[in-house]
């Protein structure tokens, strides 16, 4: 009797073993390279998800945070897989993650999390992978305190606008664009460059532009950094070189890509400038102000009175008087205040540069802090909102206060087309980038 019962149960035991060895979903995890990699080298984490019957919809696979590493997943179609497990056919997809170690030693990678989906994309269950580990090796000479790039190829190029072979004077600016490209390294994995400006130069850095490109499963990372240097005073300035160290996986050696930088001679703007040139440089306007006509009228009367005494002498006197007026600090400030009534930060900055050249060097610290908002709006648009009329009015008030502190000239002494923010006290425009000094 027992023998007959045993013979009856044997097929059922085989079926149970087949079911146990052929689960409905199988998750397998592998690494490439498998055991060790250079710090900063791409480590491919492959997560294979296989279904015994059919895959109603590709699952959603995520990797938890990995201490000491960056993880990237590039949007691309998963690799289709087929296999036989326990004698049963399986089909599914491979999901690949790129891992970049940021320190030396053993890197422990937690199990992948898999969300199973139905045909409508709703979650029907979950599965998990296996924990794996890999050793990150730091070669001799490599500094692991900053992001390390380990690749087979890296390039660095830089461009300057305008042409650095031209002439520059205080208040001018030059833009530097640095572009890096590396195979098997995403742009976000490249380190920030040291772009600290020298004394007498202000620097405005835009957000980096990342442009990663996939070709047959291989990513080429592109990162573009833009920085604008503004020359605050005359003299010789050296815009520093930039370096990108990288480990050459093909040659197993440490290399450095370099952007050479520049040395420029910054001229001081001449105190005396022709009226037509100054007016065109600031505003591009051909009209004369009431003070210009007054000067011409007085000159005409003087010319008539002095006609018999010498027309040449009168002509020279009028010309000298006009040149002194046009080249004066007061005229430059008057033009600046008028320009502040517009919404074009570039025009305001040009007028500011002319006025700035006619001030003593001791005024520079106050002006530098007062005009930061204007320079950010002009040279670092990603860091500041757009320039507004309220910003211009607030800047005009701020500069008038600074000028009064330096010269004793108050806002009542300056003719301006701008309405006062408040006739009794200075008011900071809400949302403005400027705060009163003092």
Give a written overview of the molecule.
The chain has three domains: 23-137, Immunoglobulin-like; 150-267, Sandwich (Immunoglobulin-like), CATH 2.60.40; 275-413, no CATH class. The protein has helices at 2-21, 275-282, 290-305, 311-326, 329-339, 345-357, 364-370, 372-379, 389-407, and strands at residues 25-32, 36-38, 42-51, 60-62, 69-72, 79-85, 88-101, 105-109, 113-117, 123-128, 132-137, 150-151, 154-161, 168-169, 173-183, 201-205, 209-210, 213-215, 218-231, 235-239, 242-248, 253-259, 262-267. Helices cover 27% and strands 33% of the residues. Strands 13, 15, 16, 17, 18 and 19 form a six-stranded antiparallel beta sheet that branches. Strands 1, 3, 5, 6 and 7 form a five-stranded antiparallel beta sheet that branches. Mean pLDDT is 79; it is low at 1-19, 272-293 and 410-438. It starts with a helix and ends in a 31-residue tail after the last helix. The radius of gyration is 35 Å and the shape is elongated. The protein has 438 residues and is of the alpha+beta class. Helix 3 (290-305) packs antiparallel against helix 4 (311-326), helix 5 runs antiparallel to helix 6 (345-357) and helix 6 crosses helix 8. A hairpin with a 2-residue loop joins strand 18 (213-215) and strand 19 (218-231).
């Amino acid at each position: 009797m027992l023998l007959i019962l045993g013979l009856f149960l044997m097929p059922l035991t085989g079926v149970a073993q087949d079911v146990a060895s052929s689960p409905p979903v199988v998750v397998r995890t592998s690494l490439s390279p498998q055991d060790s990699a250079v710090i900063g080298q791409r480590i491919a984490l492959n997560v294979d998800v296989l279904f015994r019957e059919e895959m109603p919809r590709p699952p959603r696979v995520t990797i938890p945070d990995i201490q000491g590493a960056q993880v990237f997943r590039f949007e691309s179609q998963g690799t289709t897989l087929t296999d036989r497990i326990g004698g049963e056919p399986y089909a599914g997809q491979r999901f690949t993650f790129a891992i970049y170690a940021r320190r030396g030693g053993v890197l422990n990678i937690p199990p992948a999390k898999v969300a199973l989906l139905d045909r409508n994309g709703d979650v029907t269950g979950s599965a998990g992978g296996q924990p794996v580990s890999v050793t990150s090796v730091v070669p001799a000479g490599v500094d692991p305190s900053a992001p390390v790039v380990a690749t087979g190829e890296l390039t660095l190029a830089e461009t300057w606008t305008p042409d650095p072979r031209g002439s520059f004077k205080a208040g001018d600016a030059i833009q530097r664009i640095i572009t890096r490209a590396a195979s098997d390294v995403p742009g976000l994995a490249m380190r920030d460059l040291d772009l600290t400006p020298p004394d007498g130069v202000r620097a405005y850095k835009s957000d980096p532009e990342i442009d990663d490109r996939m070709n047959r499963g291989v990513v080429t990372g592109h990162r573009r950094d833009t920085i604008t240097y503004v020359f605050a005073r005359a003299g010789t300035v050296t815009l520093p070189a930039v370096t990108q160290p990288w480990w050459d996986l093909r040659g197993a050696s440490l290399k450095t890509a370099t952007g050479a930088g520049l040395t420029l001679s910054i001229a001081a703007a001449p105190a005396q400038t022709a009226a037509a040139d100054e007016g065109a440089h600031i505003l591009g306007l051909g009209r004369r102000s009431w003070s210009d006509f007054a000067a011409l009228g007085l000159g005409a009367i003087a010319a008539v009175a002095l006609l018999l005494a010498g027309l040449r002498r009168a002509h020279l006197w009028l010309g000298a008087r006009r040149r002194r007026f046009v080249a004066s600090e007061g005229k430059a400030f008057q033009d600046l205040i008028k320009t502040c009534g517009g919404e074009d930060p570039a025009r305001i900055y040009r007028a500011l540069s002319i006025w700035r050249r006619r001030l003593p060097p001791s005024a520079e610290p106050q002006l530098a802090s007062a005009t930061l908002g204007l320079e950010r709006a002009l040279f670092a648009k990603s860091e500041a909102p757009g320039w507004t009329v309220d910003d211009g009015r607030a800047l005009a008030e701020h500069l008038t206060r600074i000028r009064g502190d330096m010269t004793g000239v108050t806002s009542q002494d300056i003719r301006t087309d701008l309405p006062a923010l408040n006739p009794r006290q200075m008011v900071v425009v809400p949302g403005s980038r400027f705060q009163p000094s003092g």
